[in-house]
């Protein structure tokens, strides 16, 4: 049942190219210039009337929502807030009938997320669920459902569900952009074409597994480490950090790269591993300055970037992992795969139960 893989997690990491394809299939037209999402169940008028979006979820699904915010705000220019589902109800969120609430849940059974869905509906919002399980409680109660087609996810650590959620957010962003006229047809065409290259680009990263494993064995000897990044790289840093903590039990923190010097820099000592996500050309120079700040304190820095920046970055970091060239908007769907493999191999090196990490359940049905 593990299809020849040692663990479900590794199998599911390798199933991502298929999960991307399945989640995209049938959701764009033959010309590749339009997204088709009848399941959204929203009229043109309703879409044009959306004033704000709230993305509510837990754990990895919350982290996917952070990338989702970046996508939707860039593509559609609607303000998006991210909420942790267990916090949402208790902060008296400002929800109106012009609010679109998006709940994200792999299982569709997370109690806090279900409660958030009901809170949104009680306030008159349309609630859209992004879920991997069609018959789940969340899918049944939501006003519309955008299904991710990742296939069953068995490992407690979510991998292919997260990346499929990123695909779903991208399709959603493009669709809303079409209706609201915020992106030109040529821009949409370009993004859709880049999306279609993602599955084979993931394969390229999977091909780096031996090098990632060797690096994971190195970090497995440490007690603390840091992930840094800006913009969408910061969102991915948060997921990378969660994945690592969850299954390797190594303590890590994800920091917005520019924020370290506002307190946390004191924790960077000789030899502390820092993983710097540096895929965003527009802020690359700034990220490099932040890398220099940690290097000056003795950090051992690994950077994730595009091939074209590798040589440059190697002047300031100790090691680089490269992701294939894609649009800045889509890098998360690639860079996170490196971090998933890293967490997997670190857990393996430490001899932990990768698929069933201690103290965690696959589906959390208590609040
Ligand atoms: O099924 P859900 O997506 O609602 O689950 C939410 C979280 O419990 C889940 O993502 C959790 O953080 C994973 N174990 C992370 O790998």
From TrEMBL:
Residue ranges occupied by any SIS domain in the UniProt entry: 43-182, 215-357
Protein name: Glutamine--fructose-6-phosphate aminotransferase [isomerizing]
Subunit field text: Homodimer.
Organism of derivation: Paenibacillus rhizoplanae
Residues annotated as the enzyme's active site: 362
Main location (coarse class): cytoplasm
Organism taxonomic ancestry: Bacteria, Bacillati, Bacillota, Bacilli, Bacillales
Domain of life, source organism: Bacteria
GO molecular function term, any single one: glutamine-fructose-6-phosphate transaminase (isomerizing) activity
Function as written in the Swiss-Prot or TrEMBL entry: Catalyzes the first step in hexosamine metabolism, converting fructose-6P into glucosamine-6P using glutamine as a nitrogen source.
Catalytic activity: D-fructose 6-phosphate + L-glutamine = D-glucosamine 6-phosphate + L-glutamate
Compartment(s): Cytoplasm
Keywords: Aminotransferase, Cytoplasm, Glutamine amidotransferase, Repeat, Transferase
Gene that this sequence comes from: glmS
EC number, UniProt record: 2.6.1.16
